[in-house]
Amino acid sequence: MKLIGLNREEVKTAIKSGEVTIAVYGMGKMGLPLAAVFADHGARVIGVDINEKVVEMINRGENHVKEEPGLDELVRRNVEAGRLEATTDGVWAAKKADVMIILVPTLTDERGNLKLGPVYDVAEKISQGLERGDIVITEATMPPGTTESLIPILEKSGLKLGEFGLAHAPERTMTGTAIRDITGQYPKIVGASDEKILEAVIGIYETINRKGVIPMSSIKAAEAVKVFEGVYRDVNIALANELAMWCEEHGLDALEVFQAANTQPYCHLHMPGAGVGGHCIPVYPWFVINLAKKTNPRLIKTAREINDSMPHHVVELTVKALNQVGKPLKGSNVLVLGLTFRGGVREFMKAAAKPIIQELREWGANVYAYDPLCTREDAERFGAEWKEDFKDIDAIVITADHREFKELDLEKLAGEMRTKVIVDGRNVLDPEKAKKLGFKYYRVGYTPQ
Protein backbone atom coordinates (compact mmCIF):
# COMPACT_ATOMS: atom_id res chain seq x y z
CA MET A 1 0.00 0.00 0.00
CA LYS A 2 1.41 3.39 -0.98
CA LEU A 3 1.47 5.89 1.88
CA ILE A 4 2.25 9.18 0.14
CA GLY A 5 -0.80 11.42 0.36
CA LEU A 6 -2.28 9.69 3.42
CA ASN A 7 -2.48 11.53 6.71
CA ARG A 8 -0.68 10.12 9.73
CA GLU A 9 -3.79 8.46 11.19
CA GLU A 10 -4.51 6.70 7.89
CA VAL A 11 -0.88 5.53 7.79
CA LYS A 12 -1.10 4.10 11.32
CA THR A 13 -4.31 2.26 10.48
CA ALA A 14 -2.77 0.81 7.32
CA ILE A 15 0.30 -0.47 9.17
CA LYS A 16 -1.67 -1.98 12.05
CA SER A 17 -3.99 -3.77 9.63
CA GLY A 18 -1.08 -5.40 7.80
CA GLU A 19 -1.53 -3.50 4.54
CA VAL A 20 2.00 -2.04 4.55
CA THR A 21 5.24 -3.87 3.74
CA ILE A 22 8.45 -2.46 5.19
CA ALA A 23 11.92 -3.61 4.12
CA VAL A 24 14.65 -2.98 6.69
CA TYR A 25 18.15 -3.14 5.19
CA GLY A 26 20.66 -4.30 7.81
CA MET A 27 19.76 -6.97 10.36
CA GLY A 28 22.34 -6.01 12.95
CA LYS A 29 22.02 -4.76 16.52
CA MET A 30 19.77 -1.87 15.52
CA GLY A 31 18.08 -3.19 12.37
CA LEU A 32 16.69 -6.48 13.69
CA PRO A 33 15.02 -4.90 16.75
CA LEU A 34 13.45 -2.24 14.50
CA ALA A 35 12.18 -4.86 12.05
CA ALA A 36 10.74 -6.98 14.85
CA VAL A 37 9.02 -4.01 16.47
CA PHE A 38 7.38 -2.94 13.20
CA ALA A 39 6.20 -6.53 12.63
CA ASP A 40 4.85 -6.69 16.17
CA HIS A 41 2.73 -3.61 15.40
CA GLY A 42 1.15 -5.24 12.36
CA ALA A 43 3.39 -4.43 9.39
CA ARG A 44 4.65 -7.07 7.00
CA VAL A 45 8.43 -6.78 7.36
CA ILE A 46 11.26 -8.06 5.17
CA GLY A 47 14.68 -7.97 6.80
CA VAL A 48 17.56 -7.69 4.34
CA ASP A 49 21.13 -8.71 5.13
CA ILE A 50 24.16 -9.87 3.16
CA ASN A 51 24.94 -12.52 5.79
CA GLU A 52 23.21 -15.74 4.73
CA LYS A 53 23.59 -17.27 8.19
CA VAL A 54 21.78 -14.31 9.79
CA VAL A 55 18.98 -14.57 7.20
CA GLU A 56 18.59 -18.31 7.82
CA MET A 57 18.44 -17.81 11.58
CA ILE A 58 15.75 -15.13 11.32
CA ASN A 59 13.65 -17.29 8.98
CA ARG A 60 13.81 -20.05 11.60
CA GLY A 61 12.56 -17.58 14.18
CA GLU A 62 15.96 -17.32 15.88
CA ASN A 63 17.50 -14.09 17.15
CA HIS A 64 21.23 -13.60 16.62
CA VAL A 65 21.45 -10.33 18.62
CA LYS A 66 21.79 -11.87 22.05
CA GLU A 67 22.57 -8.63 23.93
CA GLU A 68 18.98 -7.41 23.42
CA PRO A 69 16.49 -8.39 26.15
CA GLY A 70 13.10 -9.46 24.77
CA LEU A 71 14.25 -9.79 21.18
CA ASP A 72 14.23 -13.62 21.18
CA GLU A 73 10.50 -13.68 21.83
CA LEU A 74 9.75 -10.77 19.48
CA VAL A 75 11.52 -12.46 16.55
CA ARG A 76 10.03 -15.89 17.21
CA ARG A 77 6.49 -14.59 17.59
CA ASN A 78 6.48 -12.49 14.44
CA VAL A 79 8.17 -15.07 12.23
CA GLU A 80 5.63 -17.65 13.36
CA ALA A 81 2.82 -15.18 12.64
CA GLY A 82 4.15 -14.64 9.12
CA ARG A 83 4.80 -10.93 9.64
CA LEU A 84 8.61 -11.12 9.62
CA GLU A 85 10.92 -12.78 7.10
CA ALA A 86 14.45 -12.21 5.87
CA THR A 87 16.32 -12.33 2.59
CA THR A 88 19.69 -11.56 1.02
CA ASP A 89 17.95 -10.25 -2.12
CA GLY A 90 17.72 -6.49 -1.65
CA VAL A 91 16.20 -5.88 -5.09
CA TRP A 92 13.38 -8.38 -4.46
CA ALA A 93 12.72 -6.80 -1.07
CA ALA A 94 12.47 -3.34 -2.66
CA LYS A 95 9.97 -4.59 -5.22
CA LYS A 96 7.81 -6.06 -2.46
CA ALA A 97 8.05 -3.13 -0.04
CA ASP A 98 6.23 0.17 0.25
CA VAL A 99 8.77 1.58 2.70
CA MET A 100 12.53 0.89 2.64
CA ILE A 101 14.59 1.70 5.73
CA ILE A 102 18.40 1.79 5.44
CA LEU A 103 20.10 0.83 8.69
CA VAL A 104 23.36 -0.71 7.52
CA PRO A 105 26.64 0.14 9.29
CA THR A 106 28.29 3.39 8.26
CA LEU A 107 31.98 2.64 8.60
CA THR A 108 34.49 5.34 9.54
CA ASP A 109 38.12 5.68 10.34
CA GLU A 110 39.17 7.23 13.65
CA ARG A 111 38.86 10.75 12.24
CA GLY A 112 35.30 10.29 11.10
CA ASN A 113 36.05 9.92 7.39
CA LEU A 114 33.02 7.99 6.29
CA LYS A 115 33.01 4.91 4.09
CA LEU A 116 29.53 5.02 2.61
CA GLY A 117 29.90 1.98 0.37
CA PRO A 118 27.29 -0.13 2.23
CA VAL A 119 24.73 2.71 2.11
CA TYR A 120 25.30 3.36 -1.60
CA ASP A 121 25.13 -0.38 -2.34
CA VAL A 122 21.72 -0.56 -0.64
CA ALA A 123 20.52 2.53 -2.52
CA GLU A 124 21.55 0.89 -5.82
CA LYS A 125 19.53 -2.22 -4.97
CA ILE A 126 16.52 -0.17 -3.89
CA SER A 127 16.66 1.81 -7.15
CA GLN A 128 16.16 -1.45 -9.06
CA GLY A 129 12.93 -2.16 -7.22
CA LEU A 130 11.67 1.36 -6.49
CA GLU A 131 8.09 2.12 -7.52
CA ARG A 132 6.00 5.28 -7.64
CA GLY A 133 4.71 6.09 -4.17
CA ASP A 134 7.48 4.25 -2.26
CA ILE A 135 9.29 5.93 0.64
CA VAL A 136 13.01 5.50 1.36
CA ILE A 137 14.17 6.31 4.91
CA THR A 138 17.74 6.41 6.19
CA GLU A 139 18.21 5.66 9.90
CA ALA A 140 21.98 5.16 9.87
CA THR A 141 23.80 8.14 11.41
CA MET A 142 25.68 10.05 8.71
CA PRO A 143 27.16 13.51 8.17
CA PRO A 144 24.43 16.08 7.48
CA GLY A 145 23.72 16.13 3.75
CA THR A 146 24.46 12.46 3.14
CA THR A 147 20.87 11.23 2.76
CA GLU A 148 20.21 13.67 -0.06
CA SER A 149 23.36 12.45 -1.83
CA LEU A 150 21.40 9.23 -2.47
CA ILE A 151 18.89 11.01 -4.72
CA PRO A 152 20.85 10.51 -8.01
CA ILE A 153 21.24 6.81 -7.21
CA LEU A 154 17.55 6.35 -6.42
CA GLU A 155 16.56 8.30 -9.53
CA LYS A 156 18.25 5.60 -11.62
CA SER A 157 14.88 3.90 -11.13
CA GLY A 158 13.45 6.29 -13.71
CA LEU A 159 11.47 8.08 -11.02
CA LYS A 160 12.11 11.61 -9.80
CA LEU A 161 12.13 12.72 -6.17
CA GLY A 162 8.52 13.54 -5.41
CA GLU A 163 7.34 10.44 -7.26
CA PHE A 164 9.07 8.59 -4.44
CA GLY A 165 9.70 9.96 -0.97
CA LEU A 166 12.95 10.39 0.95
CA ALA A 167 13.40 10.92 4.67
CA HIS A 168 15.88 10.65 7.52
CA ALA A 169 14.85 9.34 10.93
CA PRO A 170 18.04 8.76 12.93
CA GLU A 171 18.16 5.74 15.20
CA ARG A 172 18.41 6.84 18.83
CA THR A 173 19.15 3.48 20.37
CA MET A 174 21.80 1.69 22.39
CA THR A 175 22.74 -1.97 22.38
CA GLY A 176 20.95 -3.65 25.26
CA THR A 177 18.04 -1.20 25.32
CA ALA A 178 17.12 -1.02 21.61
CA ILE A 179 13.52 -2.26 21.95
CA ARG A 180 12.87 0.13 24.83
CA ASP A 181 14.43 3.02 22.92
CA ILE A 182 12.56 2.31 19.67
CA THR A 183 9.16 2.03 21.34
CA GLY A 184 9.14 5.03 23.60
CA GLN A 185 12.25 6.05 25.52
CA TYR A 186 12.73 9.12 23.31
CA PRO A 187 10.63 10.80 20.62
CA LYS A 188 11.62 10.01 17.03
CA ILE A 189 13.33 12.70 14.94
CA VAL A 190 12.09 12.95 11.33
CA GLY A 191 12.99 15.12 8.34
CA ALA A 192 11.57 14.54 4.86
CA SER A 193 11.79 15.72 1.27
CA ASP A 194 8.37 17.44 1.33
CA GLU A 195 5.31 17.92 3.53
CA LYS A 196 3.39 14.90 2.17
CA ILE A 197 6.32 12.59 2.84
CA LEU A 198 6.81 14.11 6.28
CA GLU A 199 3.17 13.47 7.20
CA ALA A 200 3.42 9.84 6.08
CA VAL A 201 6.72 9.22 7.88
CA ILE A 202 5.34 10.76 11.08
CA GLY A 203 2.53 8.21 10.87
CA ILE A 204 5.01 5.36 10.30
CA TYR A 205 6.95 6.11 13.48
CA GLU A 206 4.00 7.17 15.62
CA THR A 207 2.75 3.62 15.08
CA ILE A 208 5.63 2.19 17.13
CA ASN A 209 6.82 5.06 19.35
CA ARG A 210 4.73 6.07 22.36
CA LYS A 211 6.70 9.32 22.77
CA GLY A 212 5.72 10.42 19.28
CA VAL A 213 7.71 12.27 16.63
CA ILE A 214 9.57 15.58 16.41
CA PRO A 215 9.29 16.80 12.79
CA MET A 216 12.25 18.77 11.46
CA SER A 217 12.27 21.40 8.71
CA SER A 218 14.56 19.35 6.47
CA ILE A 219 16.36 16.06 6.06
CA LYS A 220 19.68 17.78 6.82
CA ALA A 221 18.33 19.21 10.07
CA ALA A 222 17.24 15.74 11.16
CA GLU A 223 20.71 14.38 10.38
CA ALA A 224 22.28 17.17 12.45
CA VAL A 225 20.19 16.29 15.53
CA LYS A 226 21.78 12.88 16.05
CA VAL A 227 25.27 14.16 15.27
CA PHE A 228 24.90 17.07 17.70
CA GLU A 229 23.71 14.71 20.45
CA GLY A 230 27.00 12.82 20.15
CA VAL A 231 29.06 16.01 19.99
CA TYR A 232 27.39 17.32 23.16
CA ARG A 233 28.26 14.18 25.07
CA ASP A 234 31.84 14.15 23.81
CA VAL A 235 32.41 17.79 24.79
CA ASN A 236 30.74 17.30 28.18
CA ILE A 237 32.85 14.23 28.94
CA ALA A 238 35.97 16.14 27.94
CA LEU A 239 35.00 18.95 30.31
CA ALA A 240 34.44 16.38 33.07
CA ASN A 241 37.83 14.81 32.37
CA GLU A 242 39.62 18.15 32.40
CA LEU A 243 37.95 19.21 35.65
CA ALA A 244 38.70 15.79 37.14
CA MET A 245 42.40 16.14 36.38
CA TRP A 246 42.31 19.61 37.95
CA CYS A 247 40.76 18.02 41.05
CA GLU A 248 43.63 15.54 41.18
CA GLU A 249 46.09 18.43 41.30
CA HIS A 250 44.20 20.15 44.11
CA GLY A 251 43.45 17.18 46.35
CA LEU A 252 39.72 17.10 45.61
CA ASP A 253 37.40 14.21 44.80
CA ALA A 254 35.90 15.14 41.44
CA LEU A 255 32.85 12.90 41.84
CA GLU A 256 31.96 14.51 45.17
CA VAL A 257 32.15 17.95 43.56
CA PHE A 258 30.30 16.92 40.39
CA GLN A 259 27.45 15.27 42.28
CA ALA A 260 26.92 18.37 44.38
CA ALA A 261 27.16 20.68 41.35
CA ASN A 262 24.62 18.59 39.44
CA THR A 263 21.93 19.25 42.05
CA GLN A 264 21.64 22.66 40.35
CA PRO A 265 19.29 22.16 37.37
CA TYR A 266 21.49 24.01 34.87
CA CYS A 267 24.52 21.82 35.55
CA HIS A 268 24.91 18.36 34.06
CA LEU A 269 28.54 17.33 34.34
CA HIS A 270 29.13 13.85 32.93
CA MET A 271 31.31 11.08 34.36
CA PRO A 272 35.08 11.28 33.86
CA GLY A 273 36.86 8.10 32.88
CA ALA A 274 39.50 6.10 31.05
CA GLY A 275 38.40 7.14 27.57
CA VAL A 276 35.49 7.51 25.16
CA GLY A 277 34.85 4.53 22.90
CA GLY A 278 32.27 3.07 20.55
CA HIS A 279 31.08 3.79 17.02
CA CYS A 280 29.21 6.97 17.98
CA ILE A 281 30.51 9.54 20.46
CA PRO A 282 34.18 9.58 19.35
CA VAL A 283 33.20 9.56 15.66
CA TYR A 284 30.34 12.06 15.25
CA PRO A 285 32.43 15.12 16.22
CA TRP A 286 34.56 14.46 13.14
CA PHE A 287 31.46 14.80 10.94
CA VAL A 288 31.19 18.42 12.14
CA ILE A 289 34.93 19.05 11.99
CA ASN A 290 35.33 17.59 8.50
CA LEU A 291 32.32 19.47 7.06
CA ALA A 292 33.38 22.84 8.51
CA LYS A 293 34.37 25.46 5.92
CA LYS A 294 34.64 28.95 7.38
CA THR A 295 33.92 27.84 10.94
CA ASN A 296 36.80 26.43 12.97
CA PRO A 297 35.25 24.06 15.56
CA ARG A 298 38.07 24.57 18.08
CA LEU A 299 36.11 23.42 21.13
CA ILE A 300 35.03 20.17 19.45
CA LYS A 301 38.61 19.45 18.32
CA THR A 302 39.97 20.10 21.80
CA ALA A 303 37.37 17.80 23.35
CA ARG A 304 38.48 15.00 21.02
CA GLU A 305 42.11 15.57 21.99
CA ILE A 306 41.29 15.46 25.71
CA ASN A 307 39.19 12.31 25.49
CA ASP A 308 41.73 10.54 23.29
CA SER A 309 44.42 11.38 25.88
CA MET A 310 42.63 9.71 28.79
CA PRO A 311 44.08 6.20 28.31
CA HIS A 312 47.54 7.80 28.65
CA HIS A 313 46.39 9.54 31.83
CA VAL A 314 45.22 6.21 33.26
CA VAL A 315 48.71 4.82 32.66
CA GLU A 316 50.14 7.87 34.44
CA LEU A 317 47.87 7.12 37.41
CA THR A 318 49.08 3.52 37.40
CA VAL A 319 52.71 4.67 37.50
CA LYS A 320 51.91 7.07 40.34
CA ALA A 321 50.00 4.46 42.34
CA LEU A 322 52.76 1.86 42.04
CA ASN A 323 55.39 4.44 42.96
CA GLN A 324 53.38 5.16 46.11
CA VAL A 325 53.99 1.56 47.21
CA GLY A 326 57.63 1.58 46.13
CA LYS A 327 57.28 -0.38 42.88
CA PRO A 328 58.30 0.67 39.37
CA LEU A 329 55.90 -0.08 36.55
CA LYS A 330 58.70 -1.92 34.73
CA GLY A 331 58.50 -5.56 35.75
CA SER A 332 55.17 -5.16 37.60
CA ASN A 333 52.25 -7.48 36.84
CA VAL A 334 49.28 -5.38 35.74
CA LEU A 335 45.82 -6.87 35.15
CA VAL A 336 43.56 -4.86 32.83
CA LEU A 337 39.90 -5.59 33.54
CA GLY A 338 37.79 -4.89 30.46
CA LEU A 339 38.59 -5.14 26.76
CA THR A 340 35.29 -3.79 25.41
CA PHE A 341 34.56 -0.08 25.21
CA ARG A 342 31.69 -0.27 27.72
CA GLY A 343 30.01 -2.68 30.06
CA GLY A 344 27.68 -5.39 28.84
CA VAL A 345 28.54 -5.01 25.15
CA ARG A 346 31.12 -6.95 23.16
CA GLU A 347 32.33 -4.09 20.97
CA PHE A 348 35.90 -2.85 20.69
CA MET A 349 35.80 0.40 18.66
CA LYS A 350 38.20 2.85 20.37
CA ALA A 351 38.17 0.76 23.57
CA ALA A 352 40.43 2.37 26.18
CA ALA A 353 42.03 -0.99 26.96
CA LYS A 354 43.94 -1.14 23.68
CA PRO A 355 46.14 1.99 24.08
CA ILE A 356 46.45 1.35 27.82
CA ILE A 357 47.81 -2.17 27.27
CA GLN A 358 50.14 -0.91 24.56
CA GLU A 359 51.60 1.85 26.74
CA LEU A 360 51.91 -0.39 29.81
CA ARG A 361 53.95 -2.81 27.72
CA GLU A 362 56.13 0.04 26.44
CA TRP A 363 56.89 0.86 30.09
CA GLY A 364 58.02 -2.74 30.59
CA ALA A 365 55.05 -4.04 32.56
CA ASN A 366 53.83 -7.62 32.32
CA VAL A 367 50.28 -7.04 31.11
CA TYR A 368 47.39 -9.44 31.66
CA ALA A 369 43.72 -8.97 30.76
CA TYR A 370 40.29 -10.34 31.55
CA ASP A 371 36.82 -9.51 30.27
CA PRO A 372 33.70 -11.62 30.95
CA LEU A 373 32.47 -11.07 27.37
CA CYS A 374 35.77 -11.87 25.69
CA THR A 375 38.16 -14.72 24.99
CA ARG A 376 41.82 -15.50 25.37
CA GLU A 377 42.22 -14.68 21.67
CA ASP A 378 40.77 -11.20 22.22
CA ALA A 379 43.31 -10.50 24.96
CA GLU A 380 46.18 -11.72 22.80
CA ARG A 381 44.96 -9.54 19.93
CA PHE A 382 45.22 -6.55 22.27
CA GLY A 383 48.74 -7.60 23.31
CA ALA A 384 47.93 -9.00 26.76
CA GLU A 385 48.02 -12.43 28.36
CA TRP A 386 44.67 -13.87 29.47
CA LYS A 387 44.28 -14.23 33.25
CA GLU A 388 41.21 -15.20 35.29
CA ASP A 389 42.61 -14.80 38.81
CA PHE A 390 44.48 -12.13 40.79
CA LYS A 391 47.46 -14.16 42.00
CA ASP A 392 50.77 -12.22 41.95
CA ILE A 393 49.10 -9.12 40.45
CA ASP A 394 50.59 -5.77 41.47
CA ALA A 395 47.95 -3.45 40.01
CA ILE A 396 44.44 -3.72 38.59
CA VAL A 397 43.34 -1.25 35.93
CA ILE A 398 39.56 -1.19 35.27
CA THR A 399 38.63 0.03 31.78
CA ALA A 400 35.03 -1.21 31.31
CA ASP A 401 32.03 -0.99 33.65
CA HIS A 402 30.87 -4.60 33.41
CA ARG A 403 28.46 -5.71 36.10
CA GLU A 404 30.94 -8.40 37.15
CA PHE A 405 33.54 -5.74 37.99
CA LYS A 406 31.08 -3.78 40.12
CA GLU A 407 30.60 -6.96 42.15
CA LEU A 408 34.29 -7.76 42.65
CA ASP A 409 35.08 -9.31 46.04
CA LEU A 410 37.65 -6.84 47.34
CA GLU A 411 38.50 -9.03 50.32
CA LYS A 412 39.36 -11.88 47.97
CA LEU A 413 41.46 -9.52 45.86
CA ALA A 414 43.30 -8.28 48.95
CA GLY A 415 44.19 -11.88 49.78
CA GLU A 416 45.38 -12.85 46.31
CA MET A 417 47.18 -9.77 44.95
CA ARG A 418 50.89 -9.33 45.50
CA THR A 419 50.56 -5.55 45.70
CA LYS A 420 47.26 -3.88 46.53
CA VAL A 421 46.87 -1.19 43.85
CA ILE A 422 43.64 -0.37 41.99
CA VAL A 423 43.25 2.20 39.23
CA ASP A 424 39.51 2.42 38.67
CA GLY A 425 39.02 3.94 35.23
CA ARG A 426 35.22 3.53 35.33
CA ASN A 427 34.32 4.41 38.92
CA VAL A 428 32.78 1.01 39.60
CA LEU A 429 34.23 0.23 43.04
CA ASP A 430 33.59 1.59 46.53
CA PRO A 431 36.72 3.63 47.30
CA GLU A 432 36.14 3.64 51.05
CA LYS A 433 35.92 -0.15 51.21
CA ALA A 434 39.03 -0.46 49.06
CA LYS A 435 40.99 1.90 51.30
CA LYS A 436 39.88 0.07 54.48
CA LEU A 437 41.28 -3.14 53.01
CA GLY A 438 44.64 -1.48 52.46
CA PHE A 439 44.41 -0.76 48.72
CA LYS A 440 46.02 2.23 47.08
CA TYR A 441 42.89 3.32 45.19
CA TYR A 442 43.17 5.81 42.32
CA ARG A 443 40.61 6.94 39.76
CA VAL A 444 40.26 9.76 37.25
CA GLY A 445 39.49 12.73 39.45
CA TYR A 446 40.80 11.25 42.70
CA THR A 447 44.30 10.45 43.93
CA PRO A 448 45.00 9.88 47.64
CA GLN A 449 47.09 12.62 49.19
UniProtKB/TrEMBL annotation:
State one Pfam family annotation. UDPG_MGDP_dh_C
Domain UDP-glucose/GDP-mannose dehydrogenase C-terminal per the UniProt entry, residue ranges: 335-431
Tell me, which GO biological process terms does this entry list? polysaccharide biosynthetic process
Q: Which InterPro entries match?
A: 6-PGluconate_DH-like_C_sf (IPR008927), NAD(P)-bd_dom_sf (IPR036291), UDP-Glc/GDP-Man (IPR017476), UDP-Glc/GDP-Man_DH_C (IPR014027), UDP-Glc/GDP-Man_DH_C_sf (IPR036220), UDP-Glc/GDP-Man_DH_dimer (IPR014026), UDP-Glc/GDP-Man_DH_N (IPR001732), UDP_ManNAc/GlcNAc_DH (IPR028359)
Per UniProt, the keywords (alphabetical) are: NAD, Oxidoreductase
Organism's domain of life? Answer: Archaea
Endoplasmic reticulum is among the record's keywords? no
Quote the EC number. 1.1.1.336
Gene3D superfamilies cross-referenced by the UniProt entry: NAD(P)-binding Rossmann-like Domain
Catalytic reactions on record: UDP-N-acetyl-alpha-D-mannosamine + 2 NAD(+) + H2O = UDP-N-acetyl-alpha-D-mannosaminouronate + 2 NADH + 3 H(+)
GO molecular-function term, one example from the UniProt record: UDP-N-acetyl-D-mannosamine dehydrogenase activity
Q: Which family does it belong to?
A: Belongs to the UDP-glucose/GDP-mannose dehydrogenase family.
Q: What is this protein called?
A: UDP-N-acetyl-D-mannosamine dehydrogenase
What is the originating organism of this protein? Thermococcus cleftensis (strain DSM 27260 / KACC 17922 / CL1)
